[in-house]
Amino acid sequence: MAGMMCLKREAFAQARAYLESAIAAGDGLGALFANYDLSPQITLPIAMGIFAHISPTERGTLLALVELCEASGDAEGAAQHLERLLVIAPEDPVVLLSFVQIGLDTPQDHDLLDRVIALTAATQNETPIDTGILLYRARALAARGLPDAAIEVLTRAGRRRKDRPDRLLHQIRHDRAELSERVGRKAQARREFEKLYVEAPEFEGLAERLGLC
């Protein structure tokens, strides 16, 4: 809990020390809470307005360390913690979303992009976390030179709007418009950008793209 409080305050060095000590405790992690029948949960931002609820377990502590490494610019550390998470929680959508987000930080790594594509192949669009995963799946496909496949994934991701963060839906519309422009569908891209402007006129670079300033 001390590690999480330090992370919230962006005291990264202190947070890392506390969280790594918690991980080193092994089976003792969370034992005191269990003795008193307590189940604390902390909200942790993952990506694009999506939040996860984590508890004092190995999974929760590793997710916190991933967030810490990302925030402090330690991409290698984040990747190492995610590899461990994929071992202990391979079916966890929160873990998958964290992994694919990190994977897209290095779009020149084709092996990593192919891994993102493979791991996300079965993702449906049932939850906001699934929608976030589909956004990064589309980006991986686009980075591998498959823009039409990426547009199809983004279209599917954008169909579900209930409970989805506005920031996520706006990014999906923006990415789809950019890809439509890339493949020569300029009129369609323009319509998408205009719709996005109606919904989120403050979206970065959008007014300039539409020639409004």
List the helices and strands and how they pair.
Elements: H1 2-8, H2 12-24, H3 31-35, E1 42-47, E2 50-54, H4 58-71, H5 75-88, H6 93-103, H7 110-119, H8 128-143, H9 147-159, H10 166-182, H11 186-199, H12 206-209
Antiparallel strand pairs: 1-2
How would you describe what is shown here?
This protein has helices at 2-8, 12-24, 31-35, 58-71, 75-88, 93-103, 110-119, 128-143, 147-159, 166-182, 186-199, 206-209, and strands at 42-47, 50-54. The chain has a two-stranded antiparallel ribbon. It has 213 residues and is mainly α. Strand 1 (42-47) and strand 2 (50-54) form a beta hairpin. The protein has two domains: 1-89, no CATH class; 104-213, Tetratricopeptide repeat domain (Serine Threonine Protein Phosphatase 5, Tetratricopeptide repeat, Alpha Horseshoe). The relative contact order is 0.08. It comes from Marivita cryptomonadis.
Task: Tell me, rounded to a whole number, the average pLDDT.
Answer: 93
Which word captures the global form? elongated
Total helical elements: 12
Topology-level CATH name of the largest domain = Serine Threonine Protein Phosphatase 5, Tetratricopeptide repeat
Question: Key features?
Answer:
213 residues, mainly alpha, Serine Threonine Protein Phosphatase 5, Tetratricopeptide repeat, 2 domains, two-stranded antiparallel ribbon
Give a short synopsis of this structure.
The chain is mainly α.
